[in-house]
Amino acid sequence: MAKKSSKSVFRVLGLLVLIVLAVGGYWAYKNIFKSNVHLEQGKKYTYIYIHTGAQYQDVLDALYTDNIIDDHKSFEWTAKEMGLPEHVNPGKYRIGDDMSNRSLVKMLINAKQEKVKLYFNSQIRTREQFENYITDKLEIDAGELEEYLDDNSKLEELYGLNSENIMALVRPQTLEVNWNTSIDELFGKLKESFNAFWTKDRLAKAKATGYDVADVIVLGSIVQNESGIKSEQQKIAGVYINRLKQDMRLQADPTIVFANGNFDVQRVLNADKGIDSPYNTYKYKGLPPGPICLVSDQAIDAVLNYEKHNYTYFCANPDFSGYSRYTSDYKVHMKNAQAYQDALSKKGIKR
How far, in Å, CA of 18 to CA of 244, rounded? Predict the structure, then answer.
């Protein structure tokens, strides 16, 4: 009887242990490992943004404001057990609809951020457009960025540039950065890319042109807006360098477009050329103070390897092929210009 009684006790105890383990396992699954994320129907993920200097309560506010978390108590228990209140990291975080408390807290503690892709292309023409783009994509404060780009002494010391031509530092490319990247970190990456492009060979070619790197980039931005064809860019660069050497005004239509700020126009009118702007190369001699767009490697190389010839005038071919007609005779140039104007009118292009 005693043996049977002992076996019964062990069976009961074993059953109790199994029940406790089952209950504990279910509790752990429900509170730690089961998805605790609530998103709108059909959505697979969302983002939260934790600002620099944020505290634990700010994290909770970011999660709770949009009702991302189903069970607040289980999340906060897990967060405290894993040490989230002491390890709040700023950044942009992607939250999937299948994330558990544990996986979510682990991501936040380990600062596994979602990278932000910055697309720098020729559509960014002005410093203002650049500033707006950066402050829209990153945590960087608009006022701080403007102040940074106005600091000529710092820009000269760090990059050999100034507030007018600082956009020469920015190459067309795609950068992946953290959302909370600082201004210094961002410009450090831009400088790395800039330095990688400007090899000893390119620097030597720039010196041979008689212009510094910033001026080569400025001229490249004009050339790029005249034609996308490599051979034409080299030929056009030769025209502009001839004009500069002869102390002639560049009279480059793309600079007028930039000065007027209307980048959709296809036709520059005589009235446009009266604008009083340092970018008006019909009014002022020499290069404008800064680039008129972000400049492709091809356009810069076209300037560095410009075609040596005697042309001082060119005008787009009226067949709109991207090629131009070149001459050193002003009367011939005016005939070429009239032919192009007639072609624009025939197509109904008034602006």
Answer: 90
Q: State both tokens at 293.
A: 């767009």
Task: With beta carbons less than 8 A apart as the criterion, state whether 172 and 129 touch.
Answer: no
Q: Where are the domains of the chain?
A: 27-109, 116-197, 200-346
Say how far apart CA 167 and CA 291 lie, in whole Å: 7
Beta carbons within 10 angstroms of residue 127's beta carbon? 20
Q: How many CA atoms lie within 13 A of 50 on its CB side?
A: 26
Q: pLDDT digits over 107-126, tens only?
A: 999 999 999 999 999 779 99
pLDDT at 293: 95
Helix axis angle, 152-159 to 183-197, nearest 10° = 40
pLDDT tens figures, 26-55: 545 555 557 888 887 778 899 999 999 999
* CA gap 117, 179 in Å, rounded: 9
Decide if 294 contacts 122 (C-beta within 8 A).
Answer: yes
For residue 316, the SS3 value is strand
Long-range CB pairs of 209-214, under 8 A, 24+ apart, other chains included: 209/241, 209/303, 209/304, 209/306, 213/160, 213/168, 214/160, 214/161, 214/165, 214/168
Residue whose pair of structure tokens reads 């400025």 in the numeric block: 218
Provide the 8-state DSSP code for 69. B
- Reduced to 3 states (helix: H, G, I; strand: E, B; else coil), residue 338 is helix
DSSP 122: T
Residue 30 burial (C-beta neighbours within 10 Å; 0-12, 13-18, 19+): middle
Positive or negative torsion for Cα 75, 79, 84, 86: positive
Please say whether the beta carbons of 294 and 124 come within 8 A.
Answer: yes
* CATH topology for the 27-109 domain: Dna Ligase; domain 1 (3.30.1490)
Question: Which pTM does this prediction carry?
Answer: 0.85
